[in-house]
Amino acid sequence: MKHVLLALTLAATVHAADRPLPLMRDLMGINGHTVQFKPALYAPVTNVVRDYHPFRWDVAKDKDSSAPFTVPHTNNGVEWEAVYGAWKKAGYRAHASIMIDDFSKDWKDLPADAERYGEQFARALGPSSKGAYLEAAEVGNEPGKYDDKTYRAVFEAMAKGLRKGDPKLRIVTCAACLGKSEQYAKTVDCFQGLDSLWDILNVHIYAQVEGWPTWKRSYPEDPATHWIETLTKMIAWRDVHAKGKELWVTEFGFDASTKPPPKEGDFKKWEGSTEEQQAMWLVRSFLLLARYGVDRAHVYFFNDNDEPHVHGSSGIMRNFKPKPAFYSLAWLQKSLGDYRFSRVEREDSGECFAYEFVNGTNPRQRVWAIWKPSGPPRVARLFHDPMEIRGAERMPLEPGPAEKVEVKKEIEGYFAVEAGEKPILVWLESK
């Protein structure tokens, strides 16, 4: 684990040398879905949203890509200018994941049709369009139904169209992985030699310790999940093969349902997380992603209907009512939105993790995020001199003021605080 963390420190240093690490408000994003997303509800948590944009809605005749494309209109009455315009008016920065995943067998003239669609999409919705609706577009989400050769062909063609339609629109890969392609990700080999056609490497990482039949997840620092390992390797690949390009984690999250699993069927042995775990693990995931130098990250998901199965209860809202995770993330955004990761103060699973964040406009103002990944709380002693302590809070699970935390000053510039699984933020200021 220590070797992994050292590699990540080096990766973050390289990122910082290339460009500033993102402020937390620019890192923290969420996954929405077209007309279902309600932008006003999520403003306390984020102003960055990713949309699952159904490609089939933009095809005038179903299963016929040679027919005219309808963008910015759809074949089912949705107006993209109205949808994305409302998001922009509410203060959101948005990008679309173009959902070609279920269209693998329906292309008529794949290279020509994909390029034509990309150009029309970018002209209608890109940064240079009348409404400047979208910052970026992904060519596919998890296109596992495509073989590698076919996906590369559609990616190359659509990316060419996107570039032609609006050179300012940034192009994002589908969910990518190292080695061979997987069911939900395409190998990075699909993009080699196409560097001029993409800007952002995309990865989905879920902190899962078991697959079928439990789909059990754990805290992101747990080595058994390979969450850190997967991210580390993707960062290392990017730094060697695509230096200077951004890396986005467009899906990560945890299911938290109030219902037991069904007695029969595929999910009868499914194991979810508690609502408290979902809240803690999402907040800590963002802290970790900031520390590793990820440029943007999107929580999966914005809302759920409390269904006890994989991805069925991943929302930070349930039926558009806030879950504890919503309040925890809103607290993180309010507290650290204007800050960016600065350095690791301590990284010890047995004692505590302590990361320093610095204010983007006033470097005298610092915040330390402190927590213990698992197990009972323990007192952590940290050296803070020459900074003054201005206060401390523990991550909340409900609306209202966060719990104030006692920080005991000790001799020779040290302070002591009880570190537990719920992160604490300590505000500091340089003398």
CATH fold field value of the largest domain: TIM Barrel
Number of strands: 20
Number of H- or I-type helical stretches:
9
CATH class of the largest domain, please? Alpha Beta
- Largest sheet, strands/sense/barrel: 8 strands, parallel, barrel
The percent of residues in helical segments reads 25-40%
Poorly predicted spans: 1-14
In sequence order, what are the helices and strands, one letter per element? HHEHEHEHEHEEEHEHEEEHEEEEEEEEE
CATH architecture of the largest domain: Alpha-Beta Barrel
Strand order of the largest sheet: 1-2-3-4-5-7-8-9
Number of domains: 2
Taking Cα atoms only, what radius of gyration do you get, to the nearest Å? 22 Å
N- to C-terminal distance: 35 Å
The CATH homologous superfamily of the largest domain: Glycosidases
Strand and helix layout:
Blueprint: H1 2-18, H2 24-27, E1 28-32, H3 39-42, E2 48-54, H4 80-89, E3 93-99, H5 110-125, E4 136-139, H6 148-165, E5 170-177, E6 186-187, E7 200-204, H7 227-241, E8 246-252, H8 275-292, E9 296-299, E10 317-318, E11 321-322, H9 324-336, E12 339-348, E13 352-359, E14 365-371, E15 378-383, E16 387-394, E17 403-404, E18 408-409, E19 414-419, E20 424-430
Parallel strand pairs: 1-2, 1-9, 2-3, 3-4, 4-5, 5-6, 5-7, 7-8, 8-9
Antiparallel strand pairs: 10-11, 12-13, 13-14, 14-20, 15-19, 16-17, 16-20, 18-19
Helix pairs in contact: 1-7, 5-6, 8-9
